[in-house]
């Protein structure tokens, strides 16, 4: 063991003539540990929020959506969908017809983004109907005819809605709800909204409040009949093989579709959300990083007081031939040891708590506020390395002044009255 490290370790273990020095040293170790653990947990939370929101968004929505620039819809959608499905980087495509409607059950009602789908194709681009927890989405796969002469004898068409919407309507599987579409019929009295009863056959739960509270699925033919859009769709949704290049692939799809079409992708639709998460992470690191700075000040105070306590020892060592540079390194290593003990303790504590939080999910959130119903933790090894390096560097900066002061002790002055 190096001479400087040996003396530094002995100074840390030695009994104090002044108890306050030992207390401040212990507080310094605890402060570094708390700061490091807090940073690890905070970074794990922000990383977990970003990861979970991204995964749920990508499982619930398509990577790229193709729409007409004009609002008249896509009419040659079968041929167009088959052709675009063959493009490079496109792994799946599904047609859909969106419309905002009002769903009511008795005195209870709620606004819904209703989507007409072909279930077999919708499952290739979205997992929402695969997350049916009550009932089944199978009735959506049954053939529906768009012929007007079947209206009287046709059974009530099926509907799948989100879990939170079902709670809003106090509805369960088997209940009938009334769907009101603003795309009404022209009568001598003006445009009259169109009404259609639907039977709830399934309730899905994605865990993403935006979808569970305001989303529903019906058969494409039922949607075309309800919205008065014969054989027309509003969007073709795509899954691509590289979701982080969805913008570039979307441009290729747009060019292949021809003039009059435009695309959006999941990054454009959720840019503000992920930007907010990134800014929140930066602010969190800055605020909690102040704990490490406070711990570094404790190290500075502890070492300064230790230099005052060990002035006689320093003078004796220097009179025996120890160089000022060695004295400086003794106190540098002492501060380094305090920082290392605190950093290691903080890393262990932070990762253990982050693992426990991610595994047991014991912190629950309000889904209507945070979009997810629990606090996710996703600790990363890289974050631990960065936090450890920053903690050690900040702590070493705090040792510069007391170690320099120790190196400037004059043996004759320190021992004059001994």
UniProtKB/TrEMBL annotation:
Top-level taxonomic group: Bacteria
Keywords for the protein's UniProt record, in alphabetical order: Cell membrane, Membrane, Transmembrane, Transmembrane helix
Record carries keyword Transmembrane: yes
MacB-like periplasmic core domain segment(s): 25-254
Domain (ABC3 transporter permease C-terminal) ranges: 286-407
Transmembrane helix is among the record's keywords: yes
InterPro entries linked: ABC3_permease_C (IPR003838), Lipoprotein-release_system (IPR051447), MacB_PCD (IPR025857)
Topology in membrane: Multi-pass membrane protein
Family: Belongs to the ABC-4 integral membrane protein family. LolC/E subfamily.
Protein name: ABC transporter permease
Organism listed in the record: Alloacidobacterium dinghuense
